[in-house]
Amino acid sequence: MTELSPAATAAAIGTTGIKTPGTTPDKAPRGYLPGLAAVNFGVFLALLTPVLVSMAFKVQHITSSAAEATAQLGLVMGVGALFALIANPLAGRLSDRTTSRWGMRRPWVLGGSLVALGGFALIGAATSIWVVLIAWCLVQTAMNAVLAAANATLPDQVPVSGRGKVSGIVGLTTPLGILGGSFLVNFLSDDFSRFFVPALIATVLAVLFVLVLKDRRLDEKPAQRFTIGQFFGSFVFNPRKHPDFGWTWLTKFLVMFGYAGIATFLPFYLTEKFGLDEQAAIATILVANLASMVAMAISGPVGGILSDRIGKRRPFVSIAGVIMVVGLVVLAFAPSVPVVLVAQAIIGLGAGSFFSVDLALATQVLPNPADTAKDLGVLNIANALPQSIAPAIAPAIIAFGATTALGGYTVYYLFGALVALAGAVLVYRIKGVK
């Protein structure tokens, strides 16, 4: 990556930003960092509020029974997550090839946010589960396009020496988006506003980012055509040739499977097991998310620092996974709402350490240093895929559990704990890292 001097940077930047591909300024342009953080916060606010709270109640309002609501929620979330899984890398690759006079990234950020705003409005007004499903897939596609294009500006706009700080600040937007959404819906009493208001905030923040972004411009189309084979081929790896990378992928997938199924069905769990009304459940989810985020904020840095000092990764990943398993078991048998909050804090404590140390471990088993971005994309699939599979199979597990003495949601959370435990154990199949 070639860095420009101030004089060269001034010559390269016009009304649409940096024109020369593969170059970055000596420092990030003024307003870029808060703009990037704002657009990420908006995306997570709009996307995670439905995942955590509002989609469950929306589906409940347009279905006729608890069993139907559970099944339809799993369908909507599972299919939508598949669209997100495909849209994010695809939109990122296409933005790399965009030759708009307005820049490479800005059309995707603005266009995606406007399409998503319409999709969220459609969900809020929908009276049919099929309309909700189609609109949610549209929203997932559009918002992941925004996220991919916005974050692709990082190497465009920030020199290598400053990217760690920017990435750290942007990383805070996920828990802030979760807390912001949980807080916001406490003041929104109808389905339409619960979907539209967070989306409107996200759109406003996306527009502000577009206005401050000095976008890179690609004046000539890439010589090589982009094919479907190239897209799917870039996310393929050989687990037999790179077994440590394969075990890392599987470990991440299994632990994330246990983690991914918690949030989506928590509203139903609270209303059905503890008899909370809708507003009480929303308030409880806010406190639960706050407890989880505080625990993550503590364990993440501590786990990473201790792992660096001791020089070992696997024990920390394994212990973090076991802590999450304990939290899931406590959640499964929680006799009261306060115990649910404790369980969420325990899960957050394990998750914070797992996410920080697991990423460090992953960087040590990448198959090819020249393909770092591609290989990290493969690992991202292990993060995203459970968010599709877990909600899709959850209704069947909950229905089966309802026929037992334990109850549907108890069996579901115990199943998640068992899967996560398998991940915590299999991390020791990785041989190239201590």
From TrEMBL:
Record-linked InterPro entries: MFS, MFS_dom, MFS_trans_sf
PROSITE patterns assigned: MFS
Domain Major facilitator superfamily (MFS) profile: 35-434
Keywords associated with the record: Membrane, Transmembrane, Transmembrane helix
Subcellular location: Cell membrane
Organism domain of life: Bacteria
Transmembrane segments annotated in the record for this chain: 36-57, 69-87, 108-127, 133-154, 166-189, 195-213, 249-270, 282-304, 316-334, 340-363, 384-405, 411-430
Statement: the UniProt record of this protein carries the keyword Transmembrane: yes
Membrane topology classification: Multi-pass membrane protein
PANTHER family: MAJOR FACILITATOR SUPERFAMILY (MFS) PROFILE DOMAIN-CONTAINING PROTEIN, PTHR23528
Name used for this protein in its record: MFS transporter
Originating organism: Microbacterium fluvii
